[in-house]
Amino acid sequence: MPTGKPAVKRGRSEVWTRGPTARAIKRELRRLGERLRELRLEQGLTQEQAAEAIGVHPKHIIKMEQGAANVTVATLVAASAAFKVPLRDLFQEAEKEDGGK
After folding, report:
1. CB neighbours of 75 closer than 8 A, spacing ≥ 6?
2. Cα diameter, the chain
3. I want to staple 60 with a disulfide (CB 3.0 to 4.6 A). Which of 21, 31, 49, 56 is the partner?
4. Could you give the CA distance from residue 69 to residue 92 in angstroms, rounded to a whole number?
5. Predicted confidence band at 18 (pLDDT cuts at 50, 70, 90)?
6. d(Cα 60, Cα 25) in Å, to the nearest integer?
7. Among 72, 73, 79, 68, CA closest to 40
């Protein structure tokens, strides 16, 4: 039932229009994707099995591992539970590369 209100158009956040910030986001999403793939393989899971355990569509796992998905905190929590690792361990590789920062 229409409410009489105009539809709100939702698009990408303004943060994606800022060059250095957008590049940093893309870099970190790629790192996160690499880590998710590493954890999945360590567990001996297929992408389909990991998707089922996390509660996302198998195509979303592919995008996550490629760094092409803007992953929500809820999905990260679900992934840490599925892989049986603390949430912080999803970011372990990036911390090592940055000298523990």
Report:
1. 54, 56, 64
2. 55
3. 56
4. 19
5. confident
6. 18
7. 79
CA-derived radius of gyration, the chain: 16
Closest CA to 97 of 35, 50, 10: 35
Q: Tens digits of per-residue pLDDT, 53-64?
A: 999 999 999 999
Structure tokens at 54: 């996390």
For residues 95 and 85, give the distance between their C-alpha atoms in angstroms, rounded to a whole number. 16
Residue 52 structure tokens: 């089922």
pLDDT in tens, 82-101: 999 999 999 965 445 455 44
CA distance 91 to 87: 8
Confidence tier at 14 by pLDDT (50, 70, 90): confident
**CA 84-87-92 angle, 5° bins:** 100
